[in-house]
Amino acid sequence: MISSSVNVVFAVGNTPRTRTEYDVETKRFVWKTGDEVAVWAKSSAGAFALGNQTFRLFASGAGHQSAGEPDNSAAYFTSTLPSPMEDGIYSYYMTYPVPESVGGTTATFTVPDVQDGAASGGVDILVAGPVSGPALTAVGEGVPVDDDNLLRVKMRHLLHFLRFYIPEGQNVLGEPVKRIEFTMPRAVAGNVSVDVTDASTASLGDGVNGMTLELTKPIDASADGMESAVAGIFPSQTAYSAGDLMTVSIYSENKWASLSPMSLEGRTFAAGHLTPVPLRPAEVKRLYKLRFTLASNNLGEDPYNIRIALPAGVNWPGSASNVLGLDGTHNGLIKTGDTFIVETKDEAEFRALSSQPLTV
């Protein structure tokens, strides 16, 4: 008999802790269109019928209601297998996102040190199982999925989440916060390795202590913290000690401020949990900016990049170079009207650029 490909489906359970992107309205993590997971299936004989098989989200919230609304922490995934799975009972393992690399059952991921405040784009890392179940059977196109016969998987978050918010009446910047920077005494981002059969084996390598949130949705003060930004960090393996501090700076369009250092003594920031971090800035300072705009273009075609040079020995703010590179953002091209901003907190650094000649 010639084997042929089959479409199969499995479900992820409907608990608020199953998935990753943070929904500020429901204050839960939910599945989003485009999500993909990797699945392993080991037979009772110890052979893997599936190994790092990609499954894609095709429905969420189906069959589960919360206060009259679909519960998007429940999700259904589908994949096309090259051939049907043999009958039998399997141990299933799963990760989100699909690993960047795999060696046997060891998967590697990256916790980025620049995030968007919504834990989107695969920032969170989840490992499921093991869960025992029968072979995944073919699902016909257009045939309703039998909810009772689906393999149900529950996920375990490997990261801790910090939820930053501005208490009501305390946004002294007077503008929405669009960027948050923070540092901690131990590494919070880097390369994560984990055996997909045992989430407790997760470890962090090439770690960095600082993180920046470039918010896709800037936040302002709110009465109940509904406007918030989340950061996924790798948990500390032991409790922080006396004297361990977290530093935070926040930025709006034209201003910035630092918060008083926060004591971390006794905290571990356990995986799968969320810690609220109120942003109560004190002294507000000005941001200094230079704006470069391509007002017109006589080249006859869009440039890929523009280089602007200061005199030798005069460097751009925050740089060890006197040459500023501006790269295109429209499929690599710079369009007429595009604006690029050079920003600094240092007034002296900004003033030092006054009257300097530029070479383009």
The helix content, as a percent range, equals: under 10%
* Mean pLDDT over all positions: 88
Question: How many strands appear in the DSSP assignment?
Answer: 29
Q: Structural class per helix/strand content?
A: mainly beta
Key attributes of the depicted protein:
eight-stranded mixed sheet, globular, seven-stranded mixed sheet, mainly beta, 1% helix
Q: Topology, pairings included?
A:
Elements: E1 6-12, E2 21-23, E3 28-30, E4 36-43, E5 48-66, E6 69-81, E7 89-96, E8 101-103, E9 106-111, E10 114-115, E11 126-134, E12 152-153, E13 155-157, E14 160-167, E15 177-183, E16 189-195, E17 198-208, E18 210-219, E19 221-222, E20 228-233, E21 245-251, E22 255-258, E23 262-263, E24 274-278, E25 284-286, E26 288-293, E27 305-309, E28 323-327, E29 339-344, H1 347-351
Parallel strand pairs: 1-12, 10-18, 14-19, 14-24
Antiparallel strand pairs: 1-6, 2-3, 4-5, 4-7, 5-6, 7-11, 8-9, 9-16, 11-13, 14-20, 15-18, 15-21, 16-17, 21-22, 21-23, 22-25, 26-29, 27-28
Task: Give a summary of the structure in a few sentences.
This protein is 1% helix and 50% strand.
Describe this structure in words.
With 360 residues, the chain is mostly beta strands. It has one helix and 29 strands. It has one helix spanning 347-351; strands spanning 6-12, 21-23, 28-30, 36-43, 48-66, 69-81, 89-96, 101-103, 106-111, 114-115, 126-134, 152-153, 155-157, 160-167, 177-183, 189-195, 198-208, 210-219, 221-222, 228-233, 245-251, 255-258, 262-263, 274-278, 284-286, 288-293, 305-309, 323-327, 339-344.
